[in-house]
Amino acid sequence: MGFDDEHRITPLSDDACWELLEANDLARLAVSVANRPDIYPISYLSRDRKLYLRTSEGSKLLELAINSQVALEVDRLDDDHAMSVVVHGRARRLETEAEIEAVEQLPLHVRLPVASPVYVEITPDLVEGRAFDFTPESER
User: Fold this and answer.
1) Among 103, 118, 108, 102, which Cα is nearest to 60's?
2) Are 46 and 26 a contacting pair, CB within 8 Å?
3) Which of 16, 32, 105, 133 has minimal Cβ neighbours within 10 Å of its Cβ?
4) What tens digit of pLDDT does each residue of 75-128 get?
């Protein structure tokens, strides 16, 4: 799969998308309620091709309860290259004690601790990624 000569953009394979998702723990979560989109920076963990996040009660969780369809974006950027992966899927709050105990055993990095954490699982419907080559023409 070669780069498009004009734009130097190539799609990422499914495995490459998941490698990027697994290698990172910061993303942007997009939700939409009543035709009003919101986007939140989140910490997450990728495990078994699902995504997990920990949050607290509030507007983000309320929006997920109203509309479980979400998008999540993860990027990696260096001087000459970038990769971007977007996940479209369904979010659901983990409710059972067994689910919560299982996710609490995962190495989910949390930057802002909360008193009463709520865990959310995102099951992807579509995962797409692209790689970008910013190398100057003279260096290619």
Assistant:
1) 118
2) no
3) 105
4) 999 888 999 999 999 999 999 999 999 998 998 877 777 777 889 999 999 999
Q: CA–CA separation, 91 vs 123, rounded Å?
A: 6
Is the Cβ–Cβ distance between 61 and 95 less than 8 Å?
no
Most confident of 52-61, 74-83, 106-115, 129-138: 74-83
The CATH number that domain 8-134 falls under is 2.30.110.10
DSSP tally for the chain: helices H, then strands E = 3, 7
What dihedral angle (degrees, nearest 10) is formed by the CA atoms of 18, 84, 32, 110? Answer: 60
Domain ranges in the chain are 8-134
CA distance 18 to 110: 21
